[in-house]
Design goal:
With 453 residues, the chain is mainly alpha-helical. Helix content is 70%, strand content 1%.
C-alpha cells in the first residue's frame, strides 16, 4: 500500500462524474439489457412493496427465485407511488441501482488501494470505465447489479479484515457481503466450500495465515451458510402454495438446458432463445428432450424433480466426452460478449453500422476483455501469496464450476468481475508502459496532502 498520504475527494468526484456520463451514454445505446429481465424479480419486488404499503394482500406476495433481488428492489419501489406503472417503477429501480453501482466503484477503488496501491485502485476503476459492462446490467431489474454490490461489499470487508483482523466491523461487512451475494446468486454457495478448503489448506501449510484468520474465517462461513439457509427457508414459507415455482425446480430446469448447450454445436455462441436460434440442433434437441421427459412424468406419475434429476445424472455418465467439452466451452463463453438484442445486419452505432460494424464492435469489446483477463492471469502467476486473495479467485472458480456443469451465460459471471478487474489492475500495473501511463494520470487525481510535523 502506498505510504504517502493522499486525498480521496478528487477521485471520488471523478468516479461519480464519469459514472453519470457513462450511464447516460449506455442508456442511449441502440442495444440494452432487457428492462425487466424475466419479469420475476420486478413483479415480486413490486408486490412486496405494495403489500408493505397496504395496497394488496399477503396472498400476492411470493419469492420464487433468489430472494436477494426482491429485497434489493423493494425499497426503491416503496418510494414510488402505489399507482406507478411498470415503466415508472423501472425508473425508480434504475436510479437506485445507479447509486448502488456508483458506491460499488468508490469501494472498488478503496479495495485496490488497500491491498496494493492508490494507482492500482485507480486502474481498477479505469478498467470499468473502459469496458462499462456494469452500466449495461444496471439498466435492467436483474440479479446482476445487487450481486455485483454484494461481492464488492464482501471484498471491502476482507480488505478491512486483512489489515485489522481484530476489529469486528470488518468481519461483519465480510459476512454481510457474502451472505447477500448468496441471496442474490445462490449459485455462489460453492464459495463457502472453497472457503473451508482454504482454511483447511492454511491449517496444514500456511500456519501464519491460519493463526491470524483461520478460526474467524471458518466461523464466518458457518454464519453465512446458516443465515443464507434461513432466508431461503423464509422465502419458501412466504411463497408456500401460492406458486408452483421454487429454487430446486428452477435448478433442474436450468441444468437441463445446460446439458444441451454446446452439446453437438460447440462453436454456436448464439443466445439460447427461440427467436435467435430456432435452427440450432442443440436447441431443437433440448425441446425434444423436454417433451420426452414430460411423457415419462405422465406415464409414471413421477415428480418433475425426480425425472429431471435422473436424466441429468444418467446423461453425464452416458456422454462423458460431451460433458467435459461442454464444461470448458462454457467457461470460455462466460468470459466473452456478444450483442444479442440487435441482429448484425440491423446494427447501428453512430457511423458504425451493418454486419461489418457489428463484428468490429464485438472484436473491440472482446479485445479489451481479453486484456483484462490477461492482467488477472499475470497477477495470479506472479503473486506468491495467493491465499491472501482467496476471495478474489475463489468466487470466480465457484461460478465457473457451477455454470460449467449446468448452464452458462456471461451475465452469470458478471458479479465476479469486481474481483477480476482488481486482480487485472494489479497484474497490468506490473507492465512498465501501463505503469507509466497510470502514474501520469495519478498526478492529476491524487494531490498529495501536506503532513503536519
Amino acid at each position: 500500500m502506498n505510504a504517502n498520504p493522499f486525498s480521496t475527494r478528487r477521485v471520488n468526484l471523478i468516479i461519480v462524474l464519469i459514472s453519470t456520463i457513462m450511464m447516460l451514454v449506455v442508456l442511449n445505446l441502440p442495444f440494452k439489457a432487457k428492462p425487466f429481465g424475466d419479469i420475476t424479480f420486478h413483479q415480486e419486488a413490486k408486490n412486496m412493496a405494495l403489500y408493505l404499503k397496504g395496497a394488496i394482500g399477503y396472498d400476492k406476495v411470493t419469492i420464487t427465485k433468489a430472494p436477494g433481488p426482491v429485497f434489493f428492489y423493494t425499497p426503491a419501489y416503496m418510494v414510488a407511488p402505489s399507482t406507478a406503472t411498470d415503466n415508472q417503477l423501472w425508473v425508480y429501480g434504475v436510479v437506485f441501482t445507479f447509486l448502488i453501482v456508483t458506491i460499488s466503484l468508490l469501494l472498488i477503488f478503496r479495495i485496490g488501494s488497500s491491498f496494493f496501491s492508490k494507482e492500482v485502485g485507480l486502474l481498477s476503476v479505469l478498467l470499468f470505465f473502459i469496458f462499462p459492462i456494469h452500466c449495461y446490467y444496471s439498466l435492467g431489474i436483474l440479479a446482476e447489479a445487487p450481486a455485483f454490490f454484494s461481492l464488492t461489499l464482501a471484498l471491502y470487508g476482507w480488505s478491512k479484515v486483512f489489515h485489522n483482523p481484530n476489529k469486528i466491523a470488518g468481519w461483519i461487512v465480510l459476512t454481510l457481503g457474502m451472505w447477500f451475494l448468496i441471496l442474490n446468486r445462490p449459485n455462489t454457495m460453492l464459495l463457502l466450500g472453497l472457503g473451508f478448503a482454504v482454511v483447511t489448506y492454511s491449517f496444514f501449510w500456511k500456519k501464519e495465515f491460519f493463526a491470524v484468520y483461520g478460526k474467524k474465517l471458518a466461523l464466518t462461513f458457518c454464519a453465512v451458510g446458516l443465515l443464507g439457509f434461513g432466508i431461503l427457508q423464509v422465502a419458501k414459507a412466504v411463497t408456500g402454495t401460492k406458486s408452483n415455482e421454487d429454487q430446486e425446480g428452477l435448478f433442474y430446469f436450468v441444468a437441463h438446458q445446460g446439458r444441451f448447450q454446446f452439446r453437438e454445436e460447440p462453436t454456436d455462441f448464439r443466445f439460447w432463445d427461440d427467436e435467435i436460434r430456432p435452427d440450432s440442433k442443440d436447441y431443437q434437441n433440448w425441446g425434444k428432450s423436454g417433451k420426452e421427459l414430460a411423457g415419462i412424468m405422465a406415464q409414471t406419475h413421477r415428480s418433475y424433480k425426480s425425472v429431471y434429476r435422473e436424466f441429468l445424472i444418467n446423461d453425464v455418465f452416458e456422454h462423458p466426452f460431451w460433458f467435459t467439452r461442454q464444461f470448458f466451452v462454457k467457461c470460455f463463453y462466460g468470459h466473452v460478449y456478444f450483442i444479442n438484442s440487435v441482429k448484425p445486419d440491423k446494427f447501428h452505432l453512430g457511423p458504425i453500422h451493418g454486419v461489418l460494424g457489428y463484428w468490429f464492435i464485438i472484436l473491440l469489446i472482446n479485445a479489451i476483455n481479453i486484456l483484462i483477463i490477461f492482467g488477472a492471469f499475470l497477477f495470479l502467476f506472479k503473486e506468491k501469496k495467493l491465499i491472501n486473495y482467496w476471495l478474489f479467485w475463489s468466487v470466480i472458480v465457484a461460478l465457473l464450476i457451477f455454470h460449467g456443469m449446468t448452464y452458462m451465460e456471461p451475465r452469470y459471471i458478471f458479479p465476479s468481475r469486481v474481483a477480476l478487474y482488481i486482480m487485472s489492475a494489479a497484474g497490468l500495473y506490473q507492465i512498465r508502459w501501463i505503469q507509466r501511463k497510470v502514474n501520469f494520470i495519478s498526478k492529476f487525481v491524487f494531490p498529495v496532502t501536506k503532513q503536519i510535523s
